[in-house]
Design brief:
Layout lengths: L3 E7 L26 E9 L5 H16 L3 E5 L12 E6 L10 E9 L5 E6 H8 L12 H24 L16 H4 L11 H16 L1
Parallel strand pairs: 2-3, 2-4, 4-6
Antiparallel strand pairs: 1-5, 5-6
Helix pairs in contact: 1-3, 2-3
């Protein structure tokens, strides 16, 4: 089967205001927020990726989707309670496919005809942003660089999860689902522009409601 590819690339673009990003406040009528959507994931990570990077990757992607009322559940080994095949997350040195004229792709989603998918995150692509030397052995990275590497990978993984959940190849003008992003912002630990935009949040909520009604 030939997968359909979606790549997230890095380009030098401007910053976006927080006013355009998703608000996660409680409903104005005081009602309880809806139960989170649970997404099962199976993570496969290159053995050379430092543990601090792995932990940062998981924490960053979880935080991004928690703000959109989605709980990421990382499966380990054989899980008897699985009802659907989980989305596979693959973090590897392998470069991912670039699209258009953008450079430095970090993430890519491969969809298959049997409705399974693999979200790939490229350590090589992330290293270009963090260190500028993609061939550098990861064990030689200072601790803070290892942590930042995990943050970049986590943001890339979160973006590809967005394509998977929203079932679209399209990108938005603001937030997590932008097609391209300033490399400095990607690696900025203070950056707050990686949340789901309002339109994508509404689409996701509608899909969740339809699934619960079936």
């Amino acid at each position: 089967m030939t997968p359909r590819r979606i790549a997230w690339s890095i380009a030098f673009v401007g910053f976006f205001g927080a006013a355009q990003l998703l608000s996660t406040a409680a409903p104005p009528d005081g009602s309880a927020p809806p139960s989170p959507t649970v997404l099962d994931l199976r993570l496969t990570v290159s053995k050379e990726l430092p543990r601090v990077s792995q932990k940062a990757l998981i924490n960053e992607s979880e935080a991004i989707w928690r703000a959109a009322n989605v709980q990421l559940r990382w499966l380990k080994g054989a899980t008897a309670t699985e009802t659907d095949r989980p989305l596979r997350i693959l973090v590897t040195r392998r470069a991912v496919t670039a699209t258009g004229t953008h450079r430095w792709p970090v993430g890519e989603l491969l969809r298959f005809e049997d409705r399974t998918a693999i979200a790939m995150a490229s350590i090589t692509g992330a290293l270009r942003i963090v260190q500028g030397s993609p061939e550098l052995p990861l064990v030689e990275l200072p601790a803070m660089r290892q942590y930042t590497l995990g943050i970049v990978l986590g943001r890339a993984v979160a973006h590809e999860i967005g394509h998977y959940l929203l079932q679209t190849n399209e990108h938005t003008e603001y937030g997590l689902m932008r097609a391209s992003i300033d490399a400095r912002e990607f690696a900025d630990l203070r950056a707050g522009g990686f949340w789901l935009d309002r339109e994508s949040q509404a689409n996701l909520a509608a899909r969740a409601l339809a699934a619960r009604s079936e």
